[in-house]
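User: Could you check the structure of this?
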Amino acid sequence: MQHRIPLKAVQAFEAAARHASFALAAEELLVTPSAISHQVKLLEDIVGLRLFHRVHRAVVLTDAGRRYAEEITAAFARIDTATRNIGRTEKSDILTVHSTPSFATQWLMPRLARFSSLNPDIDVRLNASTQPVDLTTEAVDVDIRYGTRLQPAGTLVLPFPTESIVPLCAPALADGPHPIRTPDDLRHHTLIHSEVCLVGWRDWWRQNRKVRLEITRGPRFDRSFMAISAAVDGLGVCLESLLLVQRELETGRLVAPFGLEGLKVQGYTFNLLKSRADLPKIRSFQNWLFTELETLRLGRDPAVRAAFPAPSAPP
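Assistant: Sure, the predicted structure tokens are below.
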């Protein structure tokens, strides 16, 4: 038997079996009855079995033909269903993105609607965890990582723009009984520690040595989004990246009492396999993400403008 059965022959057989007639099958497929007969004979020669009894002008399936027809009819029905459903329920591509929890929660999720509106044929599957993934063995297209980790050969690592790490707190704390106007005012407030951040209060204190601070005290969190949430709730002052707090600045839930200039760090990277870098779904997501980051870096993000409006022109 040949390895590949001609689809025309199978199609002709299925129609003839369903109609019990070469003539009706020919009418459905817009060919002549002799063409149907020829295709069925070709299929019989390939499988080495008679599939129809020719009884006068009628055709009747043999037992082998009946079993074969049941399988073929079911297969064509599945093809028909899949074809009708794919345009109705499926997108062209599914992009699987793995990210650290804080970046996914604080930055990526609030912006995914923008990406989807620009790329309606791509669905995003977002997985968030602190565990690194191996792009060579796992079904992940893009891995957004924080900090430095050795990557397998063949991985393309694209660094994010540098981030500014600044003190942040709730407005009620900044303007409360102990207002925060200068770094020295922090001695009246609880310091919130984000243990995964590449920059901590000790690093900030080294640049502000005249400030009297008890930097060893205060609540500690192993996720940046939890430290940010604690600051929003008025628990104290956190030291976090402006990259992660745009929503909080925009809504006024957090303020940066000393402004937007702070310690610089290059923390996040965009990781993908070089062999998959030109896939349209990955290229579209990469271009969109870095455009968003560049907009934020240049201060054109609405959150930055809302939290820190430009000063009025001098009279």
